[in-house]
Amino acid sequence: MPNILKRITGSTGLGLLVMSVLLSSGCSPSSRVSYSIKKEIITTYPFYDPDPIPVFARSSLWGAGAKIYPYFVFNGFSQEPSQQEWTVVRLKNKYLEVSILPEVGGKIWGAKDLKTGREFIYTNQVLKFREIALRGPWTSGGIEFNFGVIGHTPATATPVDYYLEKRPDGSLACTIGNYDWPSRSRWEVTIVVHPDRAYFETRARWTNPSSFHQSYYAWMNAAIPVAPDLHYVVPGQYFIGHDYSVPLETWPVDGLDRDLSWYKNNAFNGAKSYFVVGTYDNFFGAYYQNSDAGYGHWALYPDIPGKKIWIWDLSRAGEIWVNLLTDTNGQYSEPQAGRLLNQSDHGTFSPATSDRWQEIWFPYSGIGEMTGASPQLVLSLTNNDNGYELGLYPLEAINDSLIIKEDKKEIFNQKIQLRPAEKKHFQLGQLADPDQLVIYLGQKIIHQNNQKANEIKRPFNFHRPTGDSAEALYLAGELLQNERERAAALEKYLQVIEKEPGHVRALSRLAELYLWRGQPEKAIEYGRKALEISMYDSGANFSYGLACLRLNDLTGAKEAFGWAARSAAYALPANLELAELALNEKDYSLAEEFTSRAANFDQQNPLPYELLATVKRAQGKKQEAKKAIEKLLGLDPLNHLARYEHYLLEPSDRQLADFRSSIKNEFPGETYLELALHYSKIGQIDRTIELLKLAPENPEILTWLAFLSRKAEAEKSQAYLDRAVAASPYLVFPFREESIPVVDWAAK
After folding, report:
1. Which residues are 25's β-sheet partners?
2. Which end of the chain is more exposed for a tag (fewer CB within 10 A), N or C?
3. In the Cβ-directed half-sphere of 412, how many Cα atoms lie within 13 Å?
4. What is the rounded distance in angstroms from the CA atom of residue 242 to the CA atom of residue 62?
């Protein structure tokens, strides 16, 4: 079959990799890493019947309601299977194989250890959609990527964007991603298989391009098979349940002397959610005692401090879900990894922020239960009749000195050479003080046996803010805003300033929420009050600047953003706002200056490079524009704006087709509109209109075209408006604050 990976060279020089065909497969010249992307027949229990009623007018599952607007829910779930085609991407080396379903939320379908033949990530061979996720349909197994608010993500069962590439280091990478429409943020996960490593990586990026604070919630939900001998290897001192419903209890042995880390010991009460906290460790996983095999996850603790175990009820109540969710693959459990400690927690996603983190997922076998792990190897340390034994399971090639010290005294030093997945055991004999054992690979510590050294002594007080002080009310409002309960948050902030009229942060948040509601006059009122109290406050200046911008007070906006840009917290978003204003005024050198200032605060953030590509193109600096696009795609492989800028730089049918074909997600119309509004904000109305014309027609798209044509082409504007009135509003849910004046104009 023809190769899926085709490098665009010649005049573009961008080194982009695109899909040349839908059905293809291939491998590297060394045959150590291979891929396939094919339509495969999978037994499917489909979902159907999308609900045309706006979700805020009804209570969706988990009471999400307005939190997930503009999404709609599905009401129909089939009890009968059908044989259905799905796109499956497979990445493979000699150690493992990973399968990905880009039309089912981009989830990892499963992962197999090719050395043992075991599925170390549970693969559900059927897609049995059931009403579990925020929009309803959900299917078990694999690894699901959740961004936004608590619950299985709105995109979990529907198509996402995806992109496959061969990287210079020989690895294969499949990037999947989508918009989270309620927050207008963009998330993506790059799944990487290296030719010479016995693990796969997930590299996540989540970007908030908006000027507003958004909800921060990100969890990776893996699934593994269950068995009576399953032992969860999750370091920690305590655990707590969902909604803080279970008080902080000791882990793994609870107050009733039950070792909950053994799956079989959880045959009491209902389903379990154990959020394990209290130790500073980078790894966790599971082990099957009878098979001497397991699964592991590694990430830096500052990136992934959250560790959760989900267990279905071990009674018949849990077994019912085996029949509901699969045909023959049996029960599963979910070890989950998160950016916060509990799924009832929601953080703040600041304006113009782009977060990124890396995780690795791996099998291991033949060395006993995992005691520690690093990206280089998995190790076990067991005590038997002959003393202590160290087992190593390399995840990559090892050629270094293994050094072991007991209480600073060297007791072992040996040069080792191991291939990935080549198991090795070392007899250490009797140890006088095993708690003082430290293991090095070269000069790097890979394990400390003294677990007390990793104990976290800070307080863990999981709770919702309470109390009636101004600060307590503010914290309660902030949490509600983070949970997308914006109406309730606004009421809390109003209570704050009633109690303490000079509470600057509450005044700034009120300005922001009124802007989000499309009430800039109210927003500027509260912004002014905040500045009257603290002229130089960065948050107050940023909110006030946004309000000025909405009211077309450009001088006021520039002045306020200038003050906000002096603070590290607002430097990047404020400089981006200033760059956009300069672009609007066609002052390209000034736009470049502010864009560069924004990039200096976070050179891994794609947002400054989006503007830089436009600035360089507008200046006619073609080669520099190409470099900006290259940088942008290196940071953000699914960036649609980069591909559109590439087309604008070198217009051709092929470049336009490349851009259009990259939009594979469930909502192409919303994607085009989002891009169009970006260009509208920077004053490039021709680009806005072009993108809207490329979009699938619906009443909102047509109304925007009518609005933008109203002055220059009144007759065409009326024609667009007539088509908008005639078009079906089915499953079209306007939600952007920018659309409010457009709809108001059309209604008149």
Report:
1. 36
2. C
3. 22
4. 13
From residue 13, alpha-carbon distances to 514, 563, 626, 658, 669 in Å are 46, 40, 8, 15, 30
589-633: per-residue pLDDT in tens?
A: 999 999 999 999 999 999 999 999 999 999 999 999 999 999 999
What average pLDDT score do residues 390-416 get? 95
Encoded tokens for 598:
């924004």
Pairing, β 293-298 against β 354-365: antiparallel
Alpha helices in 288-335 (DSSP H): 316-325
Q: Which fold has domain 372-448?
A: Immunoglobulin-like (2.60.40)
* Class (C level, CATH) for 32-363: mainly beta
Whether the model clears a pTM of 0.85, i.e. scores above it, the answer is yes
- Reported as a single tens digit per residue, the pLDDT across 340-388 is 999 999 999 999 999 999 999 999 999 999 999 999 999 999 998 889 9
pLDDT (tens digit per residue) in 688-747: 999 999 999 999 999 999 999 999 999 999 999 999 999 999 999 999 999 999 999 999
First-to-last C-alpha distance (Å) of the chain: 57
Domain chopping of the chain, boundaries: 32-363, 372-448, 466-564
Q: What are phi and psi of 483, to 5 degrees?
A: -90, 5
- Yes or no: domain 466-564 corresponds to CATH 3.40.50.360: no
Q: Which of 93, 114, 113 has the alpha carbon at shortest distance from 28?
A: 93
CB 208 within 8 A of CB 352: yes
d(CA 221, CA 685): 42
CA neighbor of 698 nearest in space, from 671, 661, 659, 660: 671
